[in-house]
Amino acid sequence: MAQSQIAKDAPTRLLSLDFFRGATVAAMILVNNPGDWGNIYAPLEHASWNGCTPTDLIFPFFLFIVGVSIAYAMGSKKADPATHGKTILKALKRGLILFGLGLFLSLYPKVFTEPLEAFQHVRIPGVLQRIAIVFFISAVIFLKNSEKNIFKILIAILAVYWALMTFVPVPGVGYANLEKETNLGAWLDRSILSEAHLWKAAKTWDPEGILSTLPAIASGLFGVLVGVYLKRKDIDPATKIAWLFCTGITAVALGLLWDLQFPINKSLWTSSFVLYTGGLATLILSFCYWIIDIQQYNRFTKPFVVYGVNAITVFFLSGLIPRTLGMFSVKASDGTEMNLQAWLYSGFTCCLSPINASLAWAIAYILFWLVILWVMYNRKIIIKI
Prior knowledge:
Elements: E1 3-6, H1 15-32, H2 58-78, H3 84-107, H4 110-113, H5 115-120, H6 127-144, H7 147-167, H8 184-193, H9 213-231, H10 237-258, H11 271-294, H12 302-308, H13 311-325, E2 329-331, E3 337-339, H14 340-349, H15 354-378, E4 381-384
Antiparallel strand pairs: 1-4, 2-3
Helix pairs in contact: 1-2, 1-11, 1-12, 1-13, 1-15, 2-6, 2-9, 2-11, 3-6, 6-9, 7-9, 9-11, 10-11, 12-15
């Protein structure tokens, strides 16, 4: 799956970025692993359609962080065109691995018990799949373009996506719309992938669908531009923070303004959603950068940094474990049979209300991984995908 190596503490590593990445991944695990999907606190749920909850911020924040990381990891290679081919091939390899891991999560564990059925109904889009595509395309754009051109590409993507979604008539419907099953993106997903390979909860559309991946790339490019600016050595930190805060506030305001015509919507990944979430991510990273990297207030960061340096690893494994627990059956004290995860969860439901038991399970799961990641971090082990 990956290659394990001893991490080297590079002095140029942005601690605030690891902290922000770790907090984002921990939040991903929190919202993806409630004890009971029927009992979840409202902020830990996605908006039903239009609008934005705290949970809706998590994925765009991660793609933004992917973009910032590209600027830091590939900045030196960009200056040498002779290395671009090799760098792009490495990025392609990493993207294919990420995409493959995402597909494996969709197939597991059915691929071992009913392989034919698993492949016939595997969900092709997904979180890791989208990360893979955004990472690779953002990396290529970063290597081959100036910051000015990257900004133009970002704006062009947002404008083109807005035009496609709001002006192009949907085949079979006859008019452009932004509804769940009848928008252009949903039609494209069904036409290319068929309902068998879409999100099982909807079947007729996918929140990580083909067309909405286009503006998701813009979220990655937003992060690339912020990363490029943060890396500049000719600007003092206070000036950087001031400009980044202005940029973040402006993007949030533009996103809210555009929301009046093109609603903020995570499932459609609307252009207003890109600006709104990109602006918030810029504000948060700027604040973390000032506090952690400039002012050196970093004693509180380790629990999140240990998540941040092994982000993809913990996200993948945290999705694998519940599927594995579901494969094993045990007998409860009353003689009824249940899967291992349900049996473990019953220890929470016996003494807490349903909604608090569900939250307690998710928090316990985060702490479980924190212990493992803490040990890995202390031993300087990073699993690189």
